[in-house]
Write the C-alpha cells for this entry.
Amino acid sequence: MNLSDFSIIILSFGCVVLATDIDKIEWGKHHDNKEVFEILEAVNKRCPDITSLYHLKYRDTSGNERDETPRGNKLHVLAFGTSEPGRPEFKWVGNMHGNEVVGRELILRLAVDLCLGHRNGNPLAASLVGRARLHLMPSMNPDGWEIANDPSAPGRRTEVKGRQNANNVDLNRDFPDLDRRIYELERAGTGPFDHLFSNHTGRCGRQPETCMVMKWILTNNFVLSANLHGGDKVANYPYDESRPDSPNAYSASPDDRLFRQLALAYSSGNPAMFDRRYACPAEGGSDGRPNPFRRGVTNGAKWYSVASGMQDFNYLASNCYEITVELGCKKYPPGNELPRYWEENRQALVNYMSAVHFGIKGQVTKAGSPVAKGAAVITVDRIDTDGSVLPILHNVNTGAHGYYHRLLTDGPFAVTANAPGCAPVTKCVMIDNGVNLERWSARQVDFHLCADAAATGSGKPRQIDSSCEGVLVDGE
Ligand SMILES: [Zn+2]
C-alpha cells in the first residue's frame, strides 16, 4: 500500500464518521447552528438533483458585500425544485426570534422529509417539489439562538433571552415601516398602494439579518411565505400595525379575504391551533385565558400592533404574501416535545405550501415578446354577486420572462394587465382554488398586450375579453 492509498482510506473513513445520515437524525432534540448547516448540507448531498444550498448576502452602507450576522453566522437557505419561468416561489422563515425554536426544527425536518419522500417516490413530496420552488431558511437569527443557549447570558430562554439578535435588536421591528406610509397614501387617496420600497443604491444600514432578508425578498419573485414563531397558537395576517386613528382595531389590508383564507389554510391543518378549546396555558402563551382566536387566525393589529415587521414589508414592498405563525405554546420546549410539535403542524405545513397554487398565473407579452421584470402591472377587481365591481387596491407585477402570479380567493374576478404604451387588457376569470390544488397549479391566464396596431399607444381604451360579458356592468 502506498501513501496515497492510505490517505484515501483515511479520507473515506473520515467521511463515514462525519457525514450526517439524514435517515437517522434524532428529532427529539434541538440542533445547534453547526448541526443545522450539516443537516442542510447532507440533504443537499442526498438530493442534489432537486436541491440547492445558498446563503444570503447584502451590501452595507459603504457598498461592501457582507454575508454574516454580528457573530459571524450565515443565513443558510435550502431551496427545493428548480427555478423555471412560471413556477411559483415559496419561502419558510424560522427562528427570527432566536429563542423561538420550534419553526427552526420543523423546517429542518421538513427539508429531510421532502428529500427522502422525493427519493422514495412519495407522490405528495413529488408534487410539492415538482410544481413550486420552496426556499427553506431554518434560522433567520442564529446569533439569538446562541444567546438563548448561553448559560452565562441573563434571563430565561423560555421568555425573552435570545429573542433579539446579538446587537439586541428585535428583527421583527427592524424593517422599514411601510404601514405608516400606506396609511398616509390611503388618506391621500393617491396611491401607489403596493411596491412602496425601492432601494436604488442597493445599500442597507439596518441589522445585517434584516438587510440580508430584505434583499432576498426584493430580488426574488416570491409568491407566498410564512414566518414561523412560537409562544402561542395562531396564524396572524396583515396588517400588523394599527391605523393611527384606531389602536387595537382590526386593520384590514385590501387582500383581507385572501389573507384570512391563507391563514386558515395553515390553522385548519393544525387541530390544536384551529380549535379554540386548546388555549395555551400560562407558560408563555395566552396566560391560560380562553383562546381569543376564532379558528386559529387573527388580524395582526387586532391582536397587538407591530410596526416595522417582516410580514407587512413582504406585502407592501414586493409581490410576496406572508403570514406569521405562532406554532405552539412554548417558545423553547424541551427537545423531547419537538416530535409532538411536528405531528401537530405537519399537515398545516403541507396545506400552506400548497396554497402557493391559489389564484392565477401566466405570461404577459407586449407586441409578441415577454415584458421585462416589473414592466407590466396586474390589477384585480372582485366581482360581487350583484355584478358590482370592487377594486382590490393592491397590484402585483411581472417577474422574469413576463410571468406573474396573483393569489386570489374563490370567485369571479376581472383581471387587467397594464403596460406603458399599450391598451390595458381585461379578462374575467372564475377562481376555484380546490381545482387549482387538484392540478397543483394556479389557473393559467396569459395576456397579450399591443397584440395589434390598434391597441398600441397610450390612452387607448381598455380591451375587455369576451369572458367578461354579463359579468362586468356597463362602463367597466
Ligand atoms: Zn416571535
